[in-house]
């Protein structure tokens, strides 16, 4: 679980309405103005070919979210198992331990690794705690690669610096330390449950955007296919299609605004791994480390809106050319 506080990037869909000149303000003049643009002239060469938008950004984002959700649930299960194993240990007698989690701060590295000898690591109870953590949380395939921490460092980061401090100071597992380890491990598991729920909601949102954008793209293609099938003077049909494409572009603008509001109000922030740990937004946590765009939904909307603008330009050229 990770992340520095970050603000959602603002991504705006550019306006694409034809710009009227001072000399001419009628619809045919607007369309004619568009038809003179070099890019539109090039587009005429491929008239009749309807481009298909694959929605790859959203689909890749869903795959990333599903993979992250699986890792989060694996971590939850690992912390639950660690808590169960620690709760089953016999703590050291109270007379042989110092008070837990109340002493001065100590370096977490003073807790010896489970495979090392000497110092606190010689106590069988402490070795069992460290072995349990190694065999549960630290054994996850992604954990060492993502966090790159030793067992003591991970204990301190996940369950609190005073956890490792108390274990190091006492040199064994006191009843107080045992209770705290179990309580905080279950709290870490609960945090993973909340994160998994948030990722589930994001997957649902991505599926909804995928469905909505697929519908927009399908309507776009049908409009163009209809226009390409019109015989004779298709000016009226072209003007109608041009307007309908504009409505689709407006739907893209609305979808982008809705997504931007979700980015501005994320469900949670997540802790960042590493020495420069901080907080970052939920969406930055999900998409910042990926190879795709940081804002996949907005990128997908922009791609479709761009295709719609290209299509409108082609239709405008058809009207201006009197086809």
Automatic annotation (TrEMBL):
Membrane-traversing stretches: 40-58
Residue span, DUF7260 domain: 57-312
Keywords assigned by UniProt, alphabetized: Membrane, Transmembrane, Transmembrane helix
Protein name as it appears in the record: DUF7260 domain-containing protein
Source domain of life: Archaea
Location of the region described as Disordered in the Swiss-Prot/TrEMBL record: 90-114, 253-285
Secretion signal, residue range per the UniProt entry: none
One family name in Pfam for this protein: DUF7260
């Amino acid at each position: 679980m990770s992340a520095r506080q970050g603000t959602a990037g603002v991504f705006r869909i550019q306006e694409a309405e034809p710009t009227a000149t001072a000399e001419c303000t009628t619809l045919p003049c607007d369309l004619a103005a568009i038809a003179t643009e070099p890019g539109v002239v090039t587009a005429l060469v491929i008239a009749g070919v309807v481009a298909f938008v694959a929605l790859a950004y959203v689909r890749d984002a869903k795959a990333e979210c599903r993979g992250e959700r699986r890792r989060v649930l694996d971590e939850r299960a690992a912390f639950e198992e660690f808590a169960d194993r620690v709760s089953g240990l016999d703590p050291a007698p109270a007379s042989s331990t110092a008070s837990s989690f109340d002493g001065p701060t100590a370096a977490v590295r003073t807790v010896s690794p489970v495979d090392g000898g000497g110092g606190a690591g010689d106590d069988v109870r402490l070795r069992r705690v460290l072995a349990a953590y190694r065999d549960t949380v630290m054994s996850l395939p992604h954990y060492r690669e993502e966090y790159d921490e030793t067992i003591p460092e991970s204990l301190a980061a996940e369950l609190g610096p005073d956890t490792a401090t108390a274990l190091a100071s006492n040199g064994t597992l006191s009843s107080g330390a045992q209770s705290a380890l179990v309580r905080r491990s279950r709290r870490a598991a609960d945090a993973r449950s909340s994160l998994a729920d948030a990722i589930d909601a994001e997957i649902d949102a991505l599926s909804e955007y995928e469905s909505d954008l697929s519908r927009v793209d399908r309507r776009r293609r049908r409009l163009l296919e209809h226009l390409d099938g019109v015989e004779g003077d298709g000016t009226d049909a072209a003007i109608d299609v041009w307007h309908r494409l504009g409505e689709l572009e407006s739907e893209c603008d609305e979808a982008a605004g809705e997504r931007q509001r979700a980015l501005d109000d994320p469900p949670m922030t997540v802790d960042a791994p590493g020495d420069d740990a901080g907080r970052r937004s939920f969406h930055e946590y999900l998409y910042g480390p990926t190879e795709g765009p940081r804002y996949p939904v907005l990128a997908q909307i922009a791609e479709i809106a761009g295709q719609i603008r290209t299509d409108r330009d082609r239709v405008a050229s058809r009207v201006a050319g009197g086809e």
